[in-house]
Each structure stands twice: as structure tokens, then as C-alpha cells.
Amino acid sequence: MNNIPLGKMVIVWNLMDGKSGPPLKVVDSNDKEDEDYISSWGACNSEFSQASNEKKLRMLLTENINLTVNEGIPPTTVHEALMVIPEYRAALMEAAVIPDPDEY
């Protein structure tokens, strides 16, 4: 699994017509892997970029809800894409939502 730090991640969704790929993915803000997508959120937004890490995580969790409720992307699709973000995984492990791999 690739790791994309919270402060550098960009979520992209809404593929352009005629393009193929996952309906949503997380890319590094330095990569140009998002050119086939219409919508983006994360390090490309000034409010997110200027926020503390704690606030960035809260903003990410709020965006997770937005993507599922307002954009209609299946929750498992969003969750699986966000799993490349170490801070997201750590927050879920801390909340006991997913198992800590070090406990096996």
C-alpha cells in the first residue's frame, strides 16, 4: 500500500467523459495523476493546506461524509481510497474501527 501523508493528499473524483479509472482516488499533491478527474479536494485547497494536522483530519472525515452522502460514492469505495493516508488509518485504529496490524 502506498502512503500519502495527510498534508500532501488530494482526493479526486468525477472522471471526465471517455476516461477510465476508479470513481475516486487519493493522489499526492505533487503528482499529476488527477488530470482525468473533474473534482478535487485536499492539499489543493488553501483552507485545508493552512490547517493544523488535527483540523486536517477532522476536515478529511467531514469530506468522507460529503463524498458518500452528497456525491453518492459508496462508503467502501471512499474508505478503501483513504486507506493510503497513514493518519486516517491511525485514527481508525485508535478508535478501534480497524485492527492494529502490530497486534497480530
Secondary structure topology:
Blueprint: E1 9-15, E2 24-28, E3 37-42, H1 46-50, H2 53-69, H3 75-82, H4 86-94
Antiparallel strand pairs: 1-2, 1-3
Span between N and C termini? 18 Å
Please tell me the total number of domains.
1
Poorly predicted regions are none
Beta strand %: 15-25%
Structural class per helix/strand content? Answer: alpha+beta
Question: How many strand elements?
Answer: 3
Describe this structure in words.
By secondary structure, the protein is an alpha+beta fold. The chain has helices at 46-50, 53-69, 75-82, 86-94, and strands at 9-15, 24-28, 37-42. It has one domain (6-98). The protein is built from four helices and three strands; from the N terminus they run βββαααα.
Question: Could you list some keywords that capture this structure?
Answer:
17% strand, 104 residues, 38% helix, alpha+beta, three-stranded antiparallel beta sheet, globular
Short description:
With 104 residues, this protein is of the alpha+beta class. The protein has 4 helices and 3 strands, in the order βββαααα.
